[in-house]
Design brief:
Two copies of one chain form a homodimer. By secondary structure, chain A is α+β, with helices and mostly antiparallel strands. The first copy, chain A, has two domains: 14-47, no CATH class; 55-218, START domain (Alpha-D-Glucose-1,6-Bisphosphate, Chain A, domain 4). In chain A, 23% of the residues lie in helices and 25% in strands. The first copy, chain A, contains six helices and eight strands. Chain A has helices spanning 38-48, 55-59, 73-80, 86-89, 154-158, 199-217; strands at residues 52-54, 62-69, 93-98, 105-109, 117-125, 130-137, 145-153, 163-170. A seven-stranded antiparallel beta sheet of chain A has the order 2-8-7-6-5-4-3. The longest helix of chain A has 19 residues, at 199-217. At the A-B interface, α1, β1, β2, β3 and β7 of A face α1, β1, β2, β3 and β7 of B. β1 (52-54) of chain A pairs antiparallel with β1 (52-54) of chain B, so a sheet runs across the interface. Chains A, B: It comes from Streptomyces tubbatahanensis.
């Protein structure tokens, strides 16, 4: 009596999908190898690869800053999820203290005047190393200013120890129009959204602050 | 007999941190409100806010593309974590099939020739809606090309239904030097890293493909 081999080819019953799925045949502008030759695709890529980009092309709708930090990913996560640390690495958000609402903190943003209240909640996912800072000026009911972070092991993506931090803000419509002008610290105070065009600069400064502070504390400062 | 009030002020025992922590007093280049006035800070921000940026300034070390997609975050997550779908929305990665190693898939990348093998593992975190595609050409032992994704609820960050997808690649040193040239499909084949300078274009095309396909399937295509 012979025994059938127990090894099975894991791909034996795999059927590849069709080269062009039926419902995609008429979608305008899809760029796929089956329907756009390598030569055409590279020519198209060359047109998108401009020597220079305008500020709005890059930072009009989404503002992402990146930084390599020579500190362990878990240490970066722990630092970013502690609301007391905004005092150190941000330019102007200060003195977050607990409110009656669990997880909601109130502080000051001294960016444009001395009286502006800022509310904050930090949502972190320790497994994914994501950190979302949800905030708003003047009121804590709707936290629409969202600072989205991911911390990545630099070992994985750059082949060296440390962390990569990716930090994104999205152009929420409230930046263009304050939903609660009556809550401003004074009628003359400019709106936070008036500084949207400086978010790349402001967040680049702050992610550089973050790098300097964490590398100082971890003994890895250049 | 009177009863003490049970309400306690959650901030009553909160002591604000020092305005400038001792160890940060001598760190060069930290930009904080206590030591750099608003006028100086805004002047500095203005110098960083250039009218145009070169390609390398924006995409030299990190290539991030963003897209709004009018489909639910969970649907975007489900689509991105299914390796069969790379057949549809990528330009040239095709026919991923299981290997003997659980979770590791092998397919073809037709970007530069017809013979190049590509290996892939997809790590998703369903709570954080992160999706990391770890791949490599020619071998599946070290998956150093990492496609980092976050899916965000557009309700949270843009005040409307749908999703924002943030997709980042980092400039791993292997892009500059193939660690295994002996495994190439032919000695003449260019290296994947030779196309690093086209990653913005390539990934913009692919995230636009993703938007078109998902909005078609969700009945929200413009």
């Amino acid at each position: 009596m012979t025994t059938a081999p127990t090894h099975t080819d894991p791909a034996a019953d795999y059927t590849p999908p069709p080269a062009v799925p039926d419902d995609l045949k008429d979608v305008p502008g899809l760029l796929r190898w089956e329907t756009t030759s390598r030569e055409e695709a590279f020519a198209h890529a060359a047109t998108l690869t401009k020597e220079t980009f305008t500020y709005d092309e890059v930072y009009g709708q989404f503002v992402t800053v990146h930084q390599y930090i020579d500190a362990p990913p878990q240490a970066v996560y722990d630092y970013l999820t502690d609301e007391r640390n905004l005092n150190e690495y941000t330019y102007s958000t200060r003195d977050f203290a607990p409110t009656d609402t669990p997880g909601l903190y109130q502080g000051r943003d001294t960016l444009l005047d001395d009286e502006t209240k800022i509310f904050l909640r930090i949502d972190g996912n320790p497994d994914a190393l994501t950190v979302d800072m949800k905030c708003a000026w003047d009121q804590g009911e709707e936290l629409w200013m969202v600072y989205i972070h991911r911390i990545i092991s630099a070992e994985t993506v750059l082949g060296k120890s440390g962390s990569v931090v990716i930090w994104t803000n999205c152009h929420h419509p409230y930046y263009d129009k304050n939903p609660h002008p009556e809550l401003a610290s004074s009628p003359e105070r400019p709106w936070v959204g008036d500084t949207w065009g400086l978010f790349y600069a402001g967040h680049k400064v702050e992610i550089d602050n973050l790098k300097k502070i964490l590398e100082l504390r971890h003994g890895t400062a250049a």
